[in-house]
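Known limitations

Files may contain more than one protein. Parsers should not assume a single record per file. Below, a two-record file is shown to illustrate correct handling: read the sequence, read the token line, then continue until end of file.
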Amino acid sequence: MKTKSIFSTFPFILTLIVWCSFSSCLKESCEKTSYYKLFTPVYMSYEGLRASIKSMPPVPLKETGKIYFKYPYLYVNEIDLGIHVIDNSNPLSPQNIAFINIPGNVDIAIKGNILYADSYIDLVAIDISNVSNITEVKRFTEVFPNRNYGSGFNYDPAKGVIVNWVERDTVVKGDCANNSTIFFGNESIGVQFDGSTFGSSVNSPGNGIAGSTAKFALVESYLYCLTNNDMQLFNVSSPESPVQGNAIQMSGSIETIFPYEDYLFIGSKDGVYIYDNTNPTAPTYLTQFVHSYVCDPVVVSNDIAYSTLRSGNTCNGFTNQLDIIDVSDMAAPKLIKSYDMTNPFGLGIDGDLLFVCDGPDGLEMYDVSDSQNIILLQTVALQNPIDVIPLNGLLIVVTDKEFYQFDYTTGSLVQLSSMSRNQL
């Protein structure tokens, strides 16, 4: 009997071993189970949006946004829903007297008896002579076409505007190697969204006063509205009949606007832009004070600019500080000094007193008479202060759920009143 050598069968054995090993590898797999929050957008038609402006009885504060003051009323934004009207003729006892329903509202400005407000993609002019019976007098459609819904979510403009999100828990099983974000049509897994996009500016007597996070500014007879990448101008010499003017293209991610003398200070994520506004119909770019890529409201007084830089969430970066900038030469701003902060938001200046909303550290009041050596005078433990409006001894402070009023005429912050969430 002939004996077969093992070496003669070795190629077959080796092939078998390799095939079995490869087959075994194919059978091995890694499957992961991931848990997500799935947010499905709820759309409102344009017809529905443009028929929604109306007066309502007062409603409790829930998720407060920006603030605006025009005596005797304080206007408090309810993010994406409208405006609370607070009778503040007695700061010791503010009264919630009405609500103006404005879907998609974040910013406002007031000239005379006309309130200008964004309503998702539109700008509306509203007669508020009687806050309990308001009237829409003018609307500009698609002034803000690129509404940001956060995290790169691309909505379908043919369906209208997104007014809400339906949330549900979702379980997804997949290969361990697949780490990509998953999208299902108009549904996005793991989407996070922010309805807010967020110092008092000195205006003419007929205009109101905004906080430092405002994207709207009134200068005499002109309204300036920031979008994501440009500034829309409106002639409001006849407040009830505004006329749309130029659109000034801007670079960077612009966020806030603060008028000072013949200039406009634009806070952005990559610096402070200064525009010459000598000709109010055509502001011209003058210069930029560059900083790291973070959020940046700015206020100005006596040729000194104060800018807070904030990191985290949509603000990116790692910088949390207060920059004090010499703008005596507007074409060549110079940093005087930077001061470390915790997580600063809005700010306001009145004389030598600077008020800063510093995240978890609360509300801070500084003596800034010496820019090289500012002094912390007082801290008030408020939860998540967002912005302030100082008014010759009266300080209005808004947090994410309520607002407070303080007297600072004596050099100390003395609380006068507050209005909390769910309070009428």
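...continuing to the second record:
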Amino acid sequence: KEQPGETPQPAPRRIFHERQRITGLPLYFQGYLSVRHSRCQEFRVYWTELRGTMLFFYDDKKATTYSQKLDLSALTSATNVYPDENGSAQFILMLSNGELELKANDHECGKEWKGFILTVTELSVPPDQSLLPEQLRRMHEVLEKEKERRMMLNNCSSASLNRKSPPSSTSTALPVCFYAVSRQEAIEMLEKNPSCGNLILRPGSDSKNYAITIRYRLD
């Protein structure tokens, strides 16, 4: 059994695809993190995934469903904490609704976690001179992916969801309610545009079929 102190290996493909389906967000970074909330005394170890601007915490590396999640879009700062006697790297995430203390296994791992988090929240690679060239390259790759994801989300959100347009004469054309977005992005689009429709057709999790996201109005 893999221990938190060892070099983390990717989750099996089946688990990866199931988490992708549940979260609807791209995976940027993953590994073990010890987490402590501001009002708690003890750290708790989670298998953690950075997807989009969200952190998903899993009780076990093989769990398909996350036990907690954290929206990083409201992040105001990430501050280092002096390393402990074991050499662990700690930093505190300050958010508009509180704070969360994270501890990585070692200094290099801590730099990566903090670097990737700042990359997706600030949309720029942090100017940390201690980052290695390979780490910087991966962060620049994530930066481009996150910029592209947000651009697609913004374009889809601003586009009309009106489904009254005449159908295309081409039999292979997709309906006007189709958008190439994830499940989470489809939910956000419908929430931001309630007067423009309540249904989005999108690619399925297997990339071969289609899925439907519907917004229900509760009276």
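Parsers that stop after the first record will miss the second one. For reference, the second record is described as follows. Residues 161-214 form a domain with the SHC Adaptor Protein fold (CATH 3.30.505.10).
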